[in-house]
Amino acid sequence: MQTSINSEIGKLEGVVVHTPGAEVENMTPENAERALYSDILNLSIASREYAQMIGVLRKTTQVLEVKKLLSDILKNDTCKAQLLKDVCVHEQIPGLEDELLQHNEEDLAALLTEGLILEKNNLTNYLNNERFLLRPLHNLFFTRDSAMGMNQSMLIGKMANPVRERETLIMEAIFKNHPVFETQVVNPLNNKSSILKSAQIKIEGGDFQVARPDVFVIGTGMRTSTQGIDFIIEHIKQQKKEPHHIIVQELPSTPESFIHLDMIFTFLDVDTCMAYDPVIFGTSRFRTIHIQIENGKVIKIGEEANIPSALRKLGIDLKSVSCGGKEDLWVQEREQWHSGANFFALAPGKVIGYERNVHTVEELNKNGFEVLKATDLTENKVSIDDYKKCVVTIAGSELARGGGGARCMTMPVRRAEVSW
Ligand SMILES: NC(=[NH2+])NCCC[C@H](N)C(=O)O
């Protein structure tokens, strides 16, 4: 499959996910914060909720599981040796490499994602408060963040927090080695530019959105640095001659529900977006900046009123639906916190999101989106093909505690072109 992401909404033709496993419970309240969770999760409930989402995805598109892709590439000895070397160098546990090499691909795929217990076999380890030698990847089910489709390339994330770094090593190994993918892998770590300092580059997929093949909307804040966006500018300068545009949105640094742009803004259809109004439209100090790149140069950089108005000038005219409804700031805040703006498009005008955000769902309904229950879809009682616009709702009381919603839990690798 040639990867191809030229929009946020084109009919989905391939998506990478990770069904949450033991790693989401491998934490205590004390280290939940380091794990980037707002609470500790119950796996059996989270799994039931997740099954609703994946059931809908399976009805719509080709679903690829990270663990399967990983164990496939680990069958190749060269690839296995390289990945284990990278992981051990990266996590500064050089002695572990030989031991890991002894495991078969399935056990390794589990160890690399669920973690490896630290054996209390000497005094230092005995006194060490850590439970894991190789830490669990608690956030792996948020596949959105560690790599992102940018036209025909996959851009590997550069995570803001060390707990998520191994995810990017795994994704890079998969996209470079798995025969199912044909793609050009772009990794900010290999940045050759003399003006950018690699250590300051941070880019996470939750901040990166493809509005049109030539227009990217990118958030900058806790997870994506301005230097990260400068890396993308350099990449475009080198690779593309025709005009390209980046719309940058500054994000608030608290509360943690503002971590990524997709927590306050998502695309729903060719002419509709979802927005958390207080940040997107509020008269605030969070700026929106338009950057135009052409023939290897930045030819324009300047401030805009907000994302929709910047996009309108580029010919993308969007009606905005309000997260939490229009009336009450309290309700807006509550639903934004529970990933109320975080929708994932299965096709233009057909999106999936959390059922719990009732005001947001009602607002979508007022804007012509039929509300469908995920379970009705998976039980074949309804089909999204019968609706022009719909919002499929999934349960999410436990999943949302991990800090994300449907867009965060999906990494699309191929979408059909959109007829604008
Ligand atoms: N695309 C997103 N909004 N992802 C949400 C990720 C949440 C995850 N707990 C983290 O903090 O990294």
Could you tell me the mean pLDDT?
A: 96
List how many beta strands DSSP finds.
Answer: 20
Question: What is the CATH domain class?
Answer: Alpha Beta
| Relative strand content | 15-25%
The portion of residues assigned to helices is 25-40%
Reconstruct the topology from this structure.
Layout: E1 12-17, H1 29-32, H2 43-60, E2 63-65, H3 66-73, H4 77-90, H5 96-101, H6 105-114, E3 116-117, H7 123-127, E4 132-134, E5 147-150, E6 153-156, H8 165-177, E7 184-186, E8 208-212, E9 215-220, H9 226-239, E10 244-250, E11 265-269, E12 272-275, H10 277-280, E13 288-294, E14 297-304, H11 307-313, E15 319-322, H12 329-337, E16 344-347, E17 350-354, H13 358-366, E18 370-373, H14 374-378, E19 390-394, E20 411-415
Parallel strand pairs: 1-2, 6-7, 9-10, 12-15, 17-19, 18-19
Antiparallel strand pairs: 1-20, 3-4, 5-6, 8-9, 10-13, 11-12, 13-14, 16-17
The site of arginine (ARG) has 16 residues, from loops.
How would you describe the overall organization of this protein?
The chain is an alpha/beta fold and 420 residues long. The protein has one domain (12-415): 5-stranded Propeller (L-arginine/glycine Amidinotransferase, Chain A). The protein is built from 14 helices and 20 strands. The strands form 6 sheets. A 5-stranded mixed β-sheet has the order 8-9-10-13-14. Strand 11 and strand 12 form a beta hairpin. Helix 3 crosses helix 6 and helix 4 packs antiparallel against helix 8 (165-177). The longest helix is centred in the N-terminal third of the chain and has 18 residues, at 43-60. The protein is globular, with a radius of gyration of 21 Å. The model has no long low-confidence stretch (mean pLDDT 96). It binds arginine. The site of arginine has 16 residues, from loops.
